[in-house]
């Protein structure tokens, strides 16, 4: 081959390489998800394995679970990186400024946080724990101003050495929604995921605190729709907005809020309050959907549906309400086109 031909061939090869590199579309970066918490998340925290594999099997494959800790078993293949630090308190992590280093090492886009169990066990006041949560959220947003954050109402507690922990967990969980509503932003939304309702310490843990196989499954099932909301293009996470409360003559009220909405689905929560002067032992909430919405999963109540008409009755453990006391139930629903908020009514029954 002549020197001229060799030079021409080299030039053509260079041009072809440049064209390939400049015209081949770059694949989208994987969404980086940090599971954050204590031993319920990391030791071994097999709800993460169930969640990872469900996401993979339903088409959410361009994701990367991140953390400075490696997986700890679970007997299935999954992306096990996490920040589930056994024995850690959220208040200590905030006070000792530990999270910024983990964030810098992993650069998450989404944080999935089940934290506060050890703080509750240590009898730290809910306001102090939530102040620590605010510190952690501010650190997350310093790392990524568009950070999306899922925060759990923690699973129930009944450890052998802490008779008061069960009620402490309830008190802490009851304070989380108001904190989240005050802290969420359009750019960096916070969505509360109810891991407490429907979770049994006797059936779903092996020691009154840590989930067993059925508990892991329940936790994965609760995380999944909220996380899919963040992963789905066009998904939205509006700031929870209560609808008007209707007060019937019977003496209880029901208030609906849209916790999160995404294409074709949404999560709702209804707060029931006893407004009478006497303790009520049962309640029923009803409404009629305006746009053909349907409830696909419910927790904290027994559902009866007839077309657009919905009725939800209390369970055995949340029917008795003292004067001024409240309880909540939640549900997942489907919608198409328009998702008008329902206006529920409540009656003691």
UniProtKB/TrEMBL annotation:
<dbReference type="InterPro" id="IPR051532">
    <property type="entry name" value="Ester_Hydrolysis_Enzymes"/>
</dbReference>
<dbReference type="Pfam" id="PF13472">
    <property type="entry name" value="Lipase_GDSL_2"/>
</dbReference>
<keyword id="KW-0732">Signal</keyword>
<keyword id="KW-0624">Polysaccharide degradation</keyword>
<dbReference type="InterPro" id="IPR013830">
    <property type="entry name" value="SGNH_hydro"/>
</dbReference>
<dbReference type="InterPro" id="IPR018366">
    <property type="entry name" value="CBM2_CS"/>
</dbReference>
<feature type="signal peptide">
    <location>
        <begin position="1"/>
        <end position="28"/>
    </location>
</feature>
<dbReference type="Pfam" id="PF00553">
    <property type="entry name" value="CBM_2"/>
</dbReference>
<feature type="domain" description="CBM2">
    <location>
        <begin position="245"/>
        <end position="349"/>
    </location>
</feature>
<protein>
    <submittedName>
        <fullName>Cellulose binding domain-containing protein</fullName>
    </submittedName>
</protein>
<dbReference type="InterPro" id="IPR001919">
    <property type="entry name" value="CBD2"/>
</dbReference>
<keyword id="KW-0119">Carbohydrate metabolism</keyword>
């Amino acid at each position: 081959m002549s020197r001229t031909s060799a030079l021409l061939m080299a030039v053509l090869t260079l041009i072809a390489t440049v064209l390939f590199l400049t015209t081949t579309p770059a694949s989208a970066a994987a969404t980086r998800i940090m599971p954050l918490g204590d031993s319920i998340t990391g030791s071994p925290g097999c709800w993460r394995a169930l969640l990872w594999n469900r996401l993979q099997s339903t088409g959410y494959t361009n994701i990367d679970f991140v953390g400075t800790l490696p997986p700890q078993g679970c007997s299935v293949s999954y992306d096990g990186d996490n920040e589930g630090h056994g024995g850690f308190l959220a208040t200590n992590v905030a006070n000792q400024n530990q999270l910024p280093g983990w964030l810098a090492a992993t650069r998450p886009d989404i944080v999935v946080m089940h934290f506060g169990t050890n703080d509750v066990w240590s009898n730290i006041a809910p306001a102090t724990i939530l102040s620590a949560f605010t510190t952690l959220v501010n650190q997350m947003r310093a790392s990524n101003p568009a950070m999306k954050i899922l925060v759990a109402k923690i699973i129930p507690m009944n450890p052998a050495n802490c008779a008061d922990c069960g009620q402490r967990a309830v008190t802490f969980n009851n304070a989380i929604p108001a904190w989240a509503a005050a802290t969420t932003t359009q750019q960096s939304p916070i969505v509360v995921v109810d891991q407490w309702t429907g979770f049994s310490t006797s059936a779903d843990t092996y020691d009154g605190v840590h989930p067993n196989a059925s508990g892991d499954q329940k936790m994965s099932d609760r995380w999944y729709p909220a996380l899919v909301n963040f992963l789905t293009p066009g998904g939205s996470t509006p700031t929870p907005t209560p609808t008007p409360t209707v007060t019937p003559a019977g003496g209880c009220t029901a208030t609906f809020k849209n916790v999160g909405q995404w294409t074709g689905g949404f999560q709702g929560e209804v707060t029931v309050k006893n407004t009478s002067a006497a303790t009520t032992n049962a309640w029923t909430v009803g409404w009629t959907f305006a746009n053909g919405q349907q409830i696909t999963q419910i927790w904290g109540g027994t559902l009866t549906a007839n077309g657009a008409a919905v009725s939800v009755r209390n369970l055995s453990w949340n029917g008795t309400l003292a004067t001024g006391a409240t309880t909540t139930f939640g549900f997942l629903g489907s919608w198409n086109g328009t998702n008008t908020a329902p206006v529920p009514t409540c009656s003691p029954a």
